[in-house]
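My current task is to audit a protein record that another person submitted. Alongside the sequence sits a line of tokens, each denoting a local backbone shape. Please read both lines and tell me whether the tokens look consistent with the sequence. Do not assume that whoever made the record got everything right. Thanks in advance; the entry in question is below.
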Amino acid sequence: MSRWSFVGRAEQLDRLRMAVAGVRGRGILFTGRAGIGKSRLLHEGVDALPGDKYAVWRIAASATTSAMAFGGLVQVLPEQPQGLSPAGILRWAVDVLQQQAAGRRIVLAVDDAHLLDPPSAALVHLVARAENASVVGTLRDGEQIPLPIRALWTDGLVERAELGPLPPDETAAMLTAIVGGQVDSGSTDRLGRLSAGNPLLLRELVHAATNSGELVERYGVWTWTGRLELAPSLTELIDIRIGQLTPGVRAVVELVAFGEPLGLRLLHQAVEQHDVEYAEERGLITMVESDRRLDVRLAHPLYGEVVRRQCPVSRTRRLQAHLADLLEKVGKRRREDLLRVARWRLASGTAQDPAMLIAAAGEAFARYDVPLATRLARAALDAGGGFDAAELLATILMFADRPAEALGVLDAVATDTGQEERRSRWLTVRGMVSYWGLSQASTVEEIAAEGTKLTDAAAQARVRAFEAIMRLHRLDAPRAGRAGPPGGQCRRPRAGPLHDRTPSGRAGAAVPQRLGGGPGAGEGGQLAGRHAVPATGGGAGPRHPAGPLRRSRRHRRAGGRRVRRPRRRG
């Protein structure tokens, strides 16, 4: 791990040099959040100044020196003479600096100028008024600034510039400099998002990931596994930035940490409005417009990591249950609200509505989040969802290549299939698992035999249609135009009850279908049960060995009619 190299900020360095030379006013003050790189920028700019032209004094203000007169300049000024008035001391200090400069341009570099004591701040203001002097320094956002320092830019003596986060390209360059090698793009993006362009947080993240073995070098490229380890130094740094909070403000931060993005109107129903305003003023939360709603997010991604890990388990469960109650009270109006409530119910141990859990499991399944869909469907079954929950859970398990477990779930509810409509759904789902999941060819005859026992026309038609699909996708017949698998093993077809044509951009990803035009994932989760007729449309079944019909060179199909190409002329 190399030392912390200075990367980027070329534009800001140029502005600092021009300010020191007197081209733009008599100085510049950089403002920004803690750890954004203000102090390092100041030091880099001042270190590059030639000593024969500039007399540079570095002033590091701190909370310990802010209580004593001229405490911020104790390393710059000699011992004060006795018997001088406050105004006389200021004139004496200016004369001392002019004498020590010996004709060179005076440069006062004040780090954390907001921590200067009043006499030191007044002296800095007087020096900035001199023709041969410049003041450069840093200020932290959200702090009380002494009036003499504030007057520097209000009187037009110095320039005030906001130092923002590092852009992505400079973040990547700094990350390369820290580890001393190339970092893969995925790790760079994730670390950049977590640090939010803050150099200090980026360095602490890299150190924590390296010490925990999560950031490793393979074949000359550094890769982060994505697992976030919060080292004590990093947690301490975030705690300092968050600071001491009142119970009301802490409630705001914790609710947003577990529920972001959280609607502002919803948040106002849980906490006092003045606590929300104070948290925003402190830079702990931020407001983001989302369509017609104003959402509340934490101001930094790492705030949420620290707050969630430090929150006791009992309070975590209470907060998540409270969030679910609030959103259910106002109504789940957005598409993602159903899944958010279901997640909070699962995490808080208050998931007791099987219908809601089934609907949420179907929604998660439709979004390809199979682990979450499995958890929700299993919770629905445990909450008394009965056959509907078992049917959906078995379908999801089949999709996750766990057919044996799916078969066990179905067999557990075999006695809950008294109605013929439900019996036909059970037969089709179990047949799907046995035939395509476990490659049991005898399933075809078993389904045919069971179908003859049904008397309801719709239920019988469903089972017969499923039987026809199984016979169409015979396990002992290789796909047309392809050689059979070695050893005579049968392949599971790419298309069938659970798979459709792979969509563009998702190579190898199977699509959970809404089969047979029946209710979809968001309507009770009936993905492969009710109306469970396997897909036979595009992408299903063997392809014709001759391929698509060839079109004439002179004609092409457009909108169902023949369109003649114009003849070439000349």
About this structure: The first strand starts at residue 27 and ends at 32. The radius of gyration is 35 Å. Confidence is low (pLDDT under 50) at residues 481-563. The chain is about 45% helix and 10% strand.
